[in-house]
């Protein structure tokens, strides 16, 4: 479903302004369990994108998220989301933030000042190499955060569905 895959930039801006301040219960492998499948894209009981990993084979979006994370995010956040001296470990962060918060931070950026230092996460809402794959990156990091995916390149993955190809083409064109 294209509308769930491609999120207009103005909606991401609204998300950035309206991030909930309510407590988020820690994500677990049980909460992240896939309950629906839309052309190879999996969703949890709350309708958030999630992963499906069986017998060492990951779904296409988890694999794509691994690739996209390592092309654009790992320089700051470290290999496999493990963090660095420069940026936090996303495998820890994603246990405690929800999907909307993740989208708003990636799209709009984040700045923290305190203790004599400044931490800045740049906005990637205009970068199609990130924007068009935010769900994929989220799914990969979520799988890592709840311990479902080990470190390193997934050895086996499902093939890329036609729906994934169509959504990618539409996003990159738009």
From TrEMBL:
<dbReference type="InterPro" id="IPR036909">
    <property type="entry name" value="Cyt_c-like_dom_sf"/>
</dbReference>
<dbReference type="GO" id="GO:0046872">
    <property type="term" value="F:metal ion binding"/>
</dbReference>
<keyword id="KW-0479">Metal-binding</keyword>
<dbReference type="InterPro" id="IPR022411">
    <property type="entry name" value="C-typ_cyt_methanol_metab-rel"/>
</dbReference>
<feature type="region of interest" description="Disordered">
    <location>
        <begin position="149"/>
        <end position="174"/>
    </location>
</feature>
<dbReference type="InterPro" id="IPR009056">
    <property type="entry name" value="Cyt_c-like_dom"/>
</dbReference>
<dbReference type="GO" id="GO:0009055">
    <property type="term" value="F:electron transfer activity"/>
</dbReference>
<feature type="compositionally biased region" description="Basic and acidic residues">
    <location>
        <begin position="155"/>
        <end position="168"/>
    </location>
</feature>
<keyword id="KW-0349">Heme</keyword>
<keyword id="KW-0732">Signal</keyword>
<protein>
    <submittedName>
        <fullName>C-type cytochrome, methanol metabolism-related</fullName>
    </submittedName>
</protein>
<feature type="domain" description="Cytochrome c">
    <location>
        <begin position="42"/>
        <end position="145"/>
    </location>
</feature>
<feature type="signal peptide">
    <location>
        <begin position="1"/>
        <end position="25"/>
    </location>
</feature>
<dbReference type="GO" id="GO:0020037">
    <property type="term" value="F:heme binding"/>
</dbReference>
<keyword id="KW-0408">Iron</keyword>
